[in-house]
Amino acid sequence: MKIRTLTLAVLPEDKPIFDECCTIVTIDDEAAGEYVIVKQEPLGKDEQSIGIDPDEWPAIRDAIDSMFSEIKMHTQETE
């Protein structure tokens, strides 16, 4: 057995995880290889994009890089 991190939440320290400023970075796999999903609560009905504040970008980038490192590590373990 092993434990893998599959989701990270990036948000201001004073905000709850359901806040619209919360960005979720997740590893997913639909049987064709792992990939990273970045999402936020919709800004409007049926919204398909995210808004990233310049001050948030370093933490979001670090979360995305962390998820890609997790994928790489997992892929190397299974080869």
What Rg is obtained from the alpha carbons, in whole angstroms?
A: 14 Å
Shape: elongated
Largest sheet report: 3 strands, antiparallel
Order of helices and strands: EEEH
What is the share of helical residues? 25-40%
Average pLDDT taken over every residue: 85
Strand order of the largest sheet: 1-2-3
Distance between the termini: 17 Å
Task: Note down, in words, how this protein is organized.
This protein has 79 residues and is α+β, with helices and mostly antiparallel strands. It has one domain (7-78). It contains one helix and three strands. A hairpin with a 4-residue loop joins strand 2 and strand 3. The chain is elongated. The mean pLDDT is 85.
Helix-strand blueprint:
Elements: E1 7-10, E2 23-29, E3 34-40, H1 57-78
Summarize it.
With 79 residues, the chain is an alpha+beta fold. It contains one helix and three strands.
Keywords:
three-stranded antiparallel β-sheet; elongated; single chain; 79 residues; alpha+beta; 28% helix; 3 strands
